[in-house]
Each structure stands twice: as C-alpha cells, then as structure tokens.
Model the fold of this input.
Amino acid sequence: TTHSMSKFNFLHISDTHILRDYSNTMLETVVEGIGKTPEDFFFAAVERMIQVCPNLDFVVISGDLVHEGTADDYAHFKGLLEKALTDIPLYLCLGNHDRRDAFKEGFLNQAADNTPYYYAVNHKDSGLRIISLDSSYDNSGKGLIDMEQLLWLKDTLQEKAEKGSILVLHHPPCVGTSDPMRAMHGLINSDELYQIVKDSDIIGILSGHTHQVCATLFGDIPHYTVDSTAFG
Done:
C-alpha cells in the first residue's frame, strides 16, 4: 500500500479460530475430516507470507482469533503469535466467536469483563495510525458498532495521523450492497459509521468474518476482507 509517496508492508489475516483442544467442540468433526487443525493452517499461512514479504512493518488479525474459547485458549494463542511473528507489531480486533472476558484475562492479562475492546495506536515507523473497533455486540452473524465507540471514533478522527489511519473491524461495513453474503453478515449500522469516516484520514478498512476474499469501496475508502486461515 502506498500513501504520500512512502511504502509500508503489512500482513492482514483473519478468522484464525484457534483452540488448545478441538475435541467436544463444533469444530471437532471439521478437524478430524481434514486431518489438520486451524493452528497448522495458521503457521503455514504466516510462514508463506513472511517468505513472500520478509520485511513486514506490522500484522493485523481481524477477529475470530479463538473459537469460543477460555482464557487458557487465549494464552495459548498468544504463545503461537509470539512464536510465529516474534517482534513484529501486532494489531487485533475481536469477532463474534471471540469472548471478551476470556480474551482480556488470557491475552491481555487484565481483569475479565465483557466491555467492548477498541483502541487507536500510532505505528511509529510508518506514521500510520491503526484504529480497532469491536463490532461483535451479541456474538451473532451481524455486527454493530455501539454509540460509545462511534462517539469515541468521531473524537479520535478529529486529529489526523501523519500518514493516515487504517480501520480494523471484524464485520464488513457495507453501504447499498447487493451481495447477500455481505448484507447478511455485515455491519448493521454501516451508514452511521460512514458518516463518521467519510471525510476522515482513513485510507483503508480491513475486515474478516465472511471467510471470503473481497476488495471493494466503502464510499471512496478501499475496503478489504480476507479468507479465514483456519478454513481457507
């Protein structure tokens, strides 16, 4: 991606659906049928990407990190990331199969609570700002950005980042889509989000959830969804 004549390289993956143990879960038969786990596919995908692009500035994982797991599963996932990506900066958002309380306890080492997980952080080397929102309001197929986050986003975007911002959220935002998959699994308050981002410094939006590769526009902002590393 280029912006203001400077180049940076990043990896966007999604829907890793990791668990420490898949037995007695809805994924058990899938894993047995394939003979490999989402963990195996995750390592293969990351290894391949690092071969293709060894100079990664950062990595984005756009949700469904762990499949309805516990704090132990998130601690396990964190260990996998440290092994696979070592010192590469990592930016995450949560998806509908993530569990906020378990994530906060097992991944962030914080007190477990069910409040939305969202943040903005400046990636110092590239001059980019990464903004991550939490769209998994009820763990269903559809997504929603709540009013607290929308007001925070509006406030955050008042100040522009040096090279612009990248917005990360699990459920794809879409306006006037004719694609039934995106309409069924997208963000139900996309219009509200659009009013906030349309004149902002956001240069790209990254999503997951649909397990489909898709490049489109949200207004005039480039928007990308990616396949699931677990099942793609």
Q: What stands out?
A: The mean pLDDT is 91. Helices lie at 28-34, 38-52, 71-85, 100-106, 147-156, 180-185, 190-197. The chain is about 30% helix and 20% strand.
